[in-house]
Amino acid sequence: MDLRTLAWFREVADGATVTETARRAHLTQPALSRALARLEQEAGAALFQRVGKTLRPTPAGRLLRAHVAEALERYAQGLRAVAELTDPARGTVPLTFLHTLGTWLVPPLLSRFRAGFPDIAFELTQHGEAGLAEELLAGTADLAVTSDDPGHPHLRWQRLLTEPLLLAVPPGHRLAGRARVRLAELAEETFILLRPGFALRATTERLCRQAGFTPRAGFEGEEVETLRGLVAAGLGVSVLPLPGGEAATPHLRLTDVTATRDIGLMWLAERTLPPASAQFREHVLNAVRDGLEVPWQRAKPQG
Q1: Segments of the chain scoring below 50 in pLDDT
Q2: Where are the domains of the chain?
Q3: Would the pTM of this model clear 0.90, i.e. be above it?
Q4: Which of 45, 162, 271, 277 is positioned for an S-S bond with 142, CB 3.0–4.6 A?
Q5: For residues 19 and 23, what is the distance between their CA atoms, to the nearest angstrom?
Q6: Which CATH class is domain 163-261?
Q7: Contacts of 201 (CB under 8 A, 6+ apart)
């Protein structure tokens, strides 16, 4: 079975119609249907069932789809590795990063790198911490810019920066006019938190324990900017990094706890990176060592 048929199979299994897939592949619909039928014959099981006017994968089709996707991804990685071996100044860097770092850290790193390597492209994805590790372990990303070290035995993490965390409060809050506050003063407040499993959630809970209380969660989200919006709406307070732009809420410094999080670069410990990704890793490490400008060096807490 050739790779093109496997790619067509994955596309249809992911929800595309046979007509759409055939048009993109410059095939007739009957030709594509025959190719999928040959794949079913080779697999020895029905891979699709008709639901109305569309095809849906059977349990066997869903199982095969997972393996086909992995095979196609490994093949694409192989082609990329060969291309980069023959021309290290070209290639693609699959980079994944924490949502909040896309507003201030990742863009200047990419811009400076592309100035020296204009023919190297990037594949960018954003996740929470767990998704970043999964991308590296699955081989769909070479590098991840994330927060605290996950401590995974197969991942190497190197600290880049230590980012301050601030207390965000609603504009009309009793503490809104202050620049500094003790976290212990917020023991009776409702907190807006990330869902369990996010590093910032664990950091907030640890800081609150150090201040002598357990935070009462009013709302939980999956993105820092969502939390910031909920705080601005008056639904609670939250421990957050400095906003990337103009903030709609006061952000106060915490004086009774060391409120920071580490920002680091992460990759598979036992894998030799392709040349383009290895060059970008060195660029990131050098940029930080050379004194990359960061928002908290030029911004003041609002209050």
Answers
A1: 299, 301-303
A2: 3-83, 88-160+262-297, 163-261
A3: no
A4: 277
A5: 6
A6: alpha beta
A7: 193, 194, 195
